[in-house]
Design brief:
178 residues; 70% helix; mainly alpha; Rna Polymerase Sigma Factor, Chain: A; disordered C terminus; elongated
């Protein structure tokens, strides 16, 4: 119990002493994401407090070590967020159908593209894009970690992009990717 109280006091001291600096570093690494930046600061402080033995004062100051820890955590968070960023299908002009014949053609192209997926890929597609399950929930269903789910979703999106382009539904052509 005493150890927990000591860690709490140490965390409070770090927040008082370095809180503004750590907040600025996190905000620079995660622009426009204040909640994620704040969470990274908190994670960093608790990681430092609970694993203080990893810090070597001979190699740098406490402040420097905290900033390096934070920068590393914020970069990891940014990569994770970037991997999970998905564009809604409705945002792509390639899926806009103006009349009944065009709607039918788009539906048919999508169906043919989905037929090019394996059974597991179709299941992942359905759970992620039709039902909108987040990575953590999908991981529980598929027996994977959230990062494993994100990696598979990323590969699935790349494969779908190629399959859709073959069907004349090059959704991402405006980005120069197709």
């Amino acid at each position: 119990m005493e150890e927990v109280l000591d860690q709490n006091r140490e965390a409070e001291r770090i927040f008082r002493q370095y809180g503004r600096l750590l907040g600025a570093v996190a905000a620079a690494q995660l622009p426009g994401r204040p909640e994620d930046a704040e969470e990274c600061v908190q994670d960093t402080v608790w990681a430092f407090v609970s694993g203080r033995e990893k810090w070597d004062p001979e190699r740098g100051s406490e402040k420097t070590w905290l900033c390096l820890l934070l920068r590393s955590r914020a970069r990891d968070r940014r990569r994770t967020l970037a991997a999970r960023t998905e564009e809604p299908l409705e945002d792509h002009a390639g899926l806009t159908a103006w009349d009944e014949a065009e709607q039918s053609a788009v539906r048919d192209g999508l169906r043919r593209a989905l037929e090019g997926l394996s059974r597991e890929e179709r299941r992942l597609f359905t759970l992620r894009f039709v039902y909108g399950l987040p990575s953590a929930e999908l991981g529980g269903v598929l027996g994977l970690s959230p990062n494993g789910v994100d990696a598979r979703v990323s590969r699935l999106r790349k494969k779908l992009k190629k399959l859709l382009a073959r069907q004349g539904l090059g959704l991402w052509e405006q980005e120069g990717d197709a």
